[in-house]
Amino acid sequence: MLLDEPTASLDLETVGEVLSVIRKLVSQEEMTAIISAHEMGFARDVADRIIVFADGAIIDSGAPEGVFTSP
């Protein structure tokens, strides 16, 4: 599944619902997902790997804990 900013322009209640569905799909259904997101807390919780882009280039990548604690 490929998602590009799935929560963009949504109200807070709907954001929570959408993130809940995505979390279920990637964890319980074991679905592979590539998600472009600004929801960093969500990304940290559900990702196996984080890739950070800036100006079209990869500037960091790795396990979520490493990327968020030692960028």
Describe this structure in words.
It is globular and about 30 Å long. It has helices at about 10-25, 40-45, 65-70; strands at about 1-5, 35, 50-55, 55-60. The protein starts with a strand and ends with a helix. It has about 70 residues and is an alpha+beta fold. The mean pLDDT is about 90. It has a single domain, classed as Rossmann fold. It has a two-stranded parallel sheet with strand order 1-2. It has a two-stranded antiparallel sheet with strand order 3-4. The protein is built from three helices and four strands; from the N terminus they run βαβαββα.
CATH class: Alpha Beta
Number of domains: 1
| Total DSSP helices | 3
Provide mean pLDDT, rounded. 91
Helical proportion, percent range: 40-55%
Please give the number of β-strands. Answer: 4
Give the end-to-end Cα distance, rounded to a whole number of Å: 27 Å
Strand order of the largest sheet: 1-2
Stretches where pLDDT falls below 50 for ≥5 residues?
none
Order of helices and strands: EHEHEEH
* CATH architectural category: 3-Layer(aba) Sandwich
The largest β sheet comes out as: 2 strands, parallel
Overall body shape: globular
Give the structural class: alpha+beta
Give a brief rundown of this model:
With 71 residues, the protein is α+β, with helices and mostly antiparallel strands. Helix content is 41%, strand content 24%.
Q: Layout of SSEs?
A:
Blueprint: E1 2-4, H1 12-27, E2 34-36, H2 40-46, E3 50-54, E4 57-62, H3 64-69
Parallel strand pairs: 1-2
Antiparallel strand pairs: 3-4
